[in-house]
From TrEMBL, chain A:
Family: Belongs to the DsrF/TusC family.
Pfam families: DsrE
Record's protein name: tRNA 2-thiouridine synthesizing protein C
Superkingdom of the organism of origin: Bacteria
InterPro entries in UniProt: DsrEFH-like, Sulphur_relay_DsrE/F-like, Sulphur_relay_TusC/DsrF
UniProtKB/TrEMBL annotation, chain B:
A biological-process GO annotation: tRNA wobble position uridine thiolation
Cellular localisation: Cytoplasm
Main location: cytoplasm
Lineage, uppermost ranks: Bacteria, Pseudomonadati, Pseudomonadota, Betaproteobacteria, Nitrosomonadales
NCBIfam families referenced in this protein's UniProt entry, alphabetically: PRK00207.1, sulf_tusD_dsrE
Keyword Cytoplasm belongs to the record: yes
GO molecular function: sulfur carrier activity; sulfurtransferase activity
Annotated GO CC locations: sulfurtransferase complex
Keywords: Cytoplasm, Transferase
One matching Pfam family: DsrE
Protein name: tRNA 2-thiouridine synthesizing protein D
């Protein structure tokens, strides 16, 4: 399978409370293993996935903040974060655990238009 | 056109599985091709043949099975998501030392690579979730 497509993974949910964020990371890593052109977008409560300092001991759930840091080892370097979602939650790029590109909603829309495959979680 | 369908929610709690079913049926009825239906997250719960809804309600699981039977639809359940939620076929039961299986007819358990392949091969991938 030599086709390379542009995959964007859209993350809209908080990291814990539901399993979407964790299972979506699993898909991203597999897509990277298939040598696809991968990017991730974080919007709404999805921006909390990248917030520094996950502490999951109290809820007895495995934390996965470190996985975001490992993404660049899989050549996933395009992480887009919606500016409005950050602002609405009192966050800035400095609060996040990995380097990201903060984009406006309009810019995010344009990026989405450029994709071949959009998977939203 | 060639479609792939992704179902991210389980049956009955969310509309997503119903919508995905109706969409898939309509796609096939219009003469398009469905490369694959991929069940992920709680979507894997659409594949347990132990589902027993009240008699006057739709049976979401057997409805999918019937659709697959009539159209040779490739319905794939993610293995990692299935293991978490207790969706088991014979191979998985043997591998993980389970004493029962519950995978409904027409479904098969496989890896996440099948979802990526579905994205690569299809002209359109349509996600049904919450």
């Amino acid at each position: 399978m030599s086709d390379i497509k542009k995959f964007m993974f859209v993350n809209r949910k908080a990291p814990y409370g539901t399993i979407y964020a964790l299972e979506s990371l699993e898909v991203v890593l597999i897509a990277a293993a298939f040598d696809q052109n991968c990017s991730m977008a974080f919007l709404d409560d999805g921006v909390y996935q990248l917030k520094k300092g996950h502490q999951t001991k109290g809820i007895e759930v495995k934390g996965f903040e470190k996985t975001y840091g490992a993404l660049e080892d899989y050549d996933i370097e395009k992480l887009y974060v919606d500016q409005e979602s950050l602002a609405a939650r009192g966050l800035t790029a400095e609060d996040l655990c990995v380097p990201v590109e903060v984009v406006s909603r309009a810019e995010l829309g344009k990026l989405m238009e450029e994709q071949d495959v959009l998977l939203s979680f | 056109m060639k479609f792939s369908i992704v179902v991210n929610e389980g049956p009955y709690t969310h509309q997503a599985s119903d919508s995905a079913y109706h969409f898939t049926k309509a796609v096939l009825a219009k003469g398009h091709e469905v490369f694959r239906v991929f069940f992920y997250h709680d979507g894997v719960n659409n594949a347990t043949r132990l589902t027993t809804p009240p008699q006057d309600d739709r049976n979401i699981v057997s409805r999918w099975s019937k659709l697959a039977q009539g159209s040779e639809l490739d319905m794939v359940v993610c293995v990692a998501a299935a293991q978490r939620r207790g969706i088991v076929d014979e191979g998985e039961a043997k591998r993980n030392g389970k004493d029962a299986t519950n995978l409904a007819p027409g479904f098969r358990i496989s890896g996440l690579g099948q979802l990526i392949e579905a994205g690569i091969q299809a002209d359109r991938i349509v996600v049904f979730g919450d």
